Fold:
Amino acid sequence: MLNNVKIVTSCCFLLYLYTMKTTKEILIGGQALRNLGSDRHTNDVDYLINDITTKEAFITSEKVDFLNANGNKFFAEIFKIEEGNTEATPQSLFELKAYALVQHCQNMNWAKADACEYDMKFLVRNFGCSAKIVRKYVSAGELSEIQKVVNSVRK
Structure:
């Protein structure tokens, strides 16, 4: 019983340390899109953070996922733009979704790639977003795929 108490206490302490070592969380992903009026439903919550104690780009749990600016130059650039905000702007959400689209296509995760495309179209249609930052982090072929999504809305 005493060992269980130590484990729970240790876990709580680690969670406390984790929250202390990160800077402000910036809401991104599906929940941020819902707040902007998107009709695509998602249960998970995603945040952009800057955890200086790790270079891990993705820190995941069952219900909350974190993209770590300290572990990825693209995320760092978006974090710098959004620092001080509690929720990412539509342009930054577009950049993140475009980057995710490329990653999901590379991993052949077509369902998630389709969801990214849907979200990107929502952001283009409603906020006039286009690829600005992501173009520095993807190949010319990948950028052309992103541009095809943008062009499909702007016709």
